[in-house]
Amino acid sequence: MLMMPVLDLQFGERIVTLMAALVLVLQIAMVSQRWIVLHIRIFAVQSLLLAMIAATIAWYNHAPHIYIAAVLTLVVKVILVPILFERLVTRMEIHEEIEPIVNVPLSVLIAGGLTLVGYVVAESFYRPDAPGVGHNALAVAISLFLIGFFTMINRRKALTQVLALLSLENGLFLAAISLTYGMPLIVELGILFDVLVAAMVLGILVYRIRESFESMDVSRLRRLRG
Amino acid sequence: MLLILLLLIPVATAAASYFARRRTVMEAVNLAGFGAIFFASVVLGARVLADGTVSLANGFFYADALSALVILLTASVALICASYSIGYLRDDQQSGELGDDASGKEQLAQLRMYYTLTPLFVFSMLFMAVANNLGVMWAAMEATTLASIFLVTFYGKITSLEAAWKYAMIGGVGLSMALFGTLVAYYAGHNLTGSAALSGLNWSVLAQHSAELDKTSMRLAFVLILMGYGTKAGLAPMHTWKPDAYSEAPVPSAALLSTSTLNCAFYGLIRFYILTSGCLGAEYPSHLLLLFGLLSMGVAVPFVLVQKNFRRLLAYSTIDHAGIMAIALGIGGALGSLGLMLHMTFHTIAKALLFLCAGNVYQHFKTDQFSKIKGSVIKAMPLTGVVFFVAMLAIIGMPPFSLFQSEFLILRAAFDGGHTLTGVLFVVFSAGVFAGVLLLVGGMILGPGGDEPVAARRPWRNGSLLALASTLVIIGFWVPAPLFELISRAARVVSGQ
Questions:
Q1: What phi and psi values does residue B352 have, to the nearest 5 degrees?
Q2: Does A175 touch chain B (CB under 8 A)?
Q3: Given CB atoms, is A208 within the 8 Å cutoff of chain B?
Q4: Closest-CA residue of chain A to B136
Q5: Among all residues of chain A, which has the CA nearest to that of B311?
Q6: Distance from CA of A82 to the nearest CA of B (A)
């Protein structure tokens, strides 16, 4: 009797939807977040939820290769990248708050609007007859992509822009597992390797910008014109 | 085996340079490595001409005429740049551009970075051209950005950090759109091939079944891919990183960025164009490509006309030519595709040569502003001056040079295909760029100048310059038969005939 709900497809669908909703909530929390360390931790939790979604989908759809993708996500995005960035923050002694260009209430409102757009776009992919678990997550994935995009434009600090870029990539990961149960493993490997290298490269770049400008405010990067 | 070798040589070159302790060793390793890559690319071209396609590891690696042409062009530019950069970086070291610490350790570290990252950069471009899997192709494209970011920051100036930041962020957003597009294309095809199988994302498999792909998904996929790879190709309005990155990177790296990376981005775009036109018909991708192409050409004109800096001028010229290539792809058909492939080849030769000349001028005069040079180039450096002038005439499409022929072909395809408005705008924008480049660069080289001292002889760089210049002139009158065969076969891949 106890095993019943675990094997039930509808139950799995609900769990995935719940976790996807949490991922979306975290993305909107990132939009309104003012402290950079918290921003990094929210990103880590969001990535953890994604890994769990991937594992759930792997379990219910009997697709073992998604487990590997889930573990890789766990290692790269939940452990390595956040550690890297937190060390960077400590080393650079960043105390200041993140100053968004659009104020926080309006930003959250815009994020809500983008979520709506995400649902409209995802509608065209909706197939009621499609088997398996995870189709509800697509709308969330597209919303993550759009909100990540908006956060990048909305932030002035170099490190926050990188985090926004990575959360945008999280949206793509969610889209991949919900649309097609993940890309082939080698592609997944390539993408995660790129994410890891990109995080390191951009980290170094952020550090050097900070050293040269005494600030990571990228709105000060305006010498090259024409 | 050949394809593996093509990828292994640059990795080995990078590793060897990383562990080398002396500058001369790094230079020798790089030169030998790029020589071997060039040789392998020629052999690949010959194999493709003989057998049609070369594939390996169950079709994981795949090369047809289009890949072979892109690889050949990349390898040629890489070899020329490898020999040029020996002279260029030695001069930089002497003049103290690389920092002037007494022990020379920092300088060596910087040189090591250059000689390690350049082969990795070339590796990722070659990988892109031989990867059959569209996801792997994307990862390779992203790797080109990652490998070249620290080439843009090579001189460590404040402006180069700014350029690298723009390059990384705009490129990152663009490529995430390309990844989304790849994903949607995978979804469009995953109902007909096993979704978990690796071959489900293989271009050669998808191209065979392109008519059965999901139409709505492919529509979305192509827009995303065009925005994504278009960002890497520098199509307007995603072009803004280009002038900054090209003017801050060391000149040989800028030459690679503006020719080989541009070709690779177009290569990715062409692969998706073939899938999309097979699925939806040529009209849908064609409209989008023409729009972005004309926009790029149009955006380039005002920036060329008022440009103060010659390296940025070259970047805007590359944006203009990216527009021309997008238009050629948009017109499509047998004629448009042939024009595209010829233009890709000719542009690569002429633009690489222009960057190398600009590097010579920049290092001699220590500035890249037109106003500070005032036209004494031909007196101070006769060889560079003459070659620069010839390359400039070629790039603006002056007959009898080769780019005139390819642009004329594209224009003819435009009017034949009923794209009259496109053809007219093409002529107008080309005329604008023609006038701007001719006045500015012509004035800089031939104008009445001050009395600059005559430059010293530079064997490493003048060798590269002369090799490229003679290729440029000869190819205007006579394209070797095997090369033309490769180009026209690549064009047939593009037009799907």
A1: -60, -45
A2: yes
A3: yes
A4: A187
A5: A226
A6: 19
Which ipTM was obtained for this model?
Answer: 0.88
CB pair distance less than 8 Å for A180 and B187 = yes
Please tell me if residue A101 touches chain B, with a CB cutoff of 8 Å: no
- Compute the average pLDDT of residues B363-382: 82
Answer yes or no: is pLDDT of B323 > 70.
Answer: yes
β-pairing verdict for B61-63 and B54-56: antiparallel
- Most A-contacting residue of B137, B179, B184, B199 (CB-CB within 10 A), to test interface: B179
CB-nearest partner of B135 from A152, A165, A184: A184
Residue with tokens 């003679």: B470
DSSP B345-367: HHHHHHHHHHHHHHHHHHHHHS-
pLDDT in tens, B381-402: 888 889 999 999 999 988 888 8
pTM (predicted TM-score): 0.92
Chain B residues in contact with A132 (beta carbon < 8 A): none
The reported pLDDT for the residue numbered B195 is 45
Interface A:B, Cβ pairs < 8 A = 125
What gap in Å lies between CA A43 and CA A37, rounded to an integer? 10
d(CA B364, CA B453): 9
Q: 3-class DSSP state for residue A110?
A: helix
- Which residues are paired to A157 by β-bridges? A217
Contact in structure between B67 and B486 (CB atoms under 8 Å): no
Share the mean pLDDT of chain B. 89
Burial (0-12, 13-18, 19+ Cβ within 10 Å), B52: exposed
Alpha carbons B33 and B119: distance in angstroms, whole number: 8
Judged by CB atoms closer than 8 Å, whether chains meet at B169 and A65 is answered as no
Of B156, B158, B183, the CB nearest to A176: B183
**Please, is B480 exposed, middle or buried when counting C-beta atoms within 10 Å of its C-beta (0-12, 13-18, 19+)?**
exposed
Beta-bridge partner residues of B63 = B54
**Residue A149 contacts B where some CB pair is shorter than 8 Å:** yes
Quote the CA–CA distance of B148 and B120 in Å, as a whole number. 9
The separation between CA A85 and the C-alpha centre of its own chain, rounded to angstroms, equals 15
Task: Determine the average pLDDT of the residues in B2-17.
Answer: 92
Residues of B in contact with A145 (CB under 8 A): 176, 180
Cβ count within 10 A of residue A46: 25
Q: How far is A177 from chain B (nearest CA, A)?
A: 10
Interchain pair A180, B161: CB under 8 A? no
SS3 B96: coil
The pLDDT profile of chain A, 226 residues, written as one tens digit per residue, is 444 555 677 787 788 888 888 999 998 888 887 788 888 999 999 999 999 988 888 888 777 888 888 898 899 999 999 999 888 888 887 766 667 788 888 888 999 999 899 888 887 766 655 555 556 678 888 899 899 988 888 887 888 888 888 888 888 888 888 777 767 777 888 888 888 888 888 888 888 888 777 766 776 676 676 6
Residue A103 CA to chain centroid, in angstroms? Answer: 22
Q: Which two tokens stand for residue B24?
A: 């001369």
Q: What is the C-alpha to C-alpha distance for residues A147 and A30, in angstroms, rounded to an integer?
A: 10
CA distance linking residue A100 with residue A103, whole number of Å: 6
Measured CA to CA, the distance from residue B370 to residue B359 in angstroms comes to: 14
Closest CA to B286 of B350, B334, B335, B329: B329
The closest alpha carbon to A191, from B197, B321, B51, B134, belongs to B134
